[in-house]
Amino acid sequence: MPMYVRFQASKELQDLAYELIEKARDGGKLGKGANEATKYVERGQAKIVVMAEDVTPEEILAHMPILCEEKNVPYTYVPSKEELGNAAGLGIPTSAIAIVNPGREKDLVDNLIKKLESVKKQG
Predict the structure, then answer these.
(1) CB-based contact 41:99 (threshold 8 Å)
(2) I want to staple 98 with a disulfide (CB 3.0 to 4.6 A). Which of 37, 56, 77, 110 is the partner?
(3) β-pairing, 96-101 with 29-32?
(4) How many H helices and E strands in the chain?
(5) Beta bridge partners of residue 26, listed in sequence order
């Protein structure tokens, strides 16, 4: 497991994260890539951050979990930067996505955050 991965997200959480990104990209606003995601987290604008587990070098995302915890921004992981990029409509791999405005998908964001909180309490 890469050094920046703090917990193992279940398949259900991963699928929910991909679904949320796919829906939010149309009616909402996403921060795409490690740099944009970092900016939105630092500004307190990110609702949730989704990171790929297969990013190399790992240092690209080493700061992200710490920053998210400092700013109280929930975060989760998905296995593939390729799939993460596709979910965001990029057509290229991406290391991280910050959901800034979920559009009509606020309930889906809240649902994912609740599930993440229960996973972290158990872990």
Answers:
(1) no
(2) 37
(3) antiparallel
(4) 5, 4
(5) none
Residue-wise pLDDT tens digits, 45-79: 999 999 999 999 999 999 999 999 999 999 999 99
- Cβ-based neighbours of 69, under 8 Å, separated by 6 or more: none
Contact 73, 46 (CB under 8 A): yes
Instruction: Give CA–CA dist 65/82, Å, rounded.
Output: 20
| Residue 78 near residue 14 (C-beta atoms within 8 A) | yes
**Residues whose CB falls within 8 Å of the CB of residue 121, separated by 6 or more in sequence, listed in order:** none
Band (pLDDT 50/70/90 cuts) for residue 82 is: very high
Q: Name the phi and psi angles at 99, rounded to 5.
A: -90, 115
Topology (CATH level 3) of domain 11-117: 60s Ribosomal Protein L30; Chain: A; (3.30.1330)
Longest dimension (CA), the chain: 35
| Phi, psi dihedrals of residue 20, rounded to the nearest 5° | -60, -45
Show the tokens assigned to 4: 């920046």
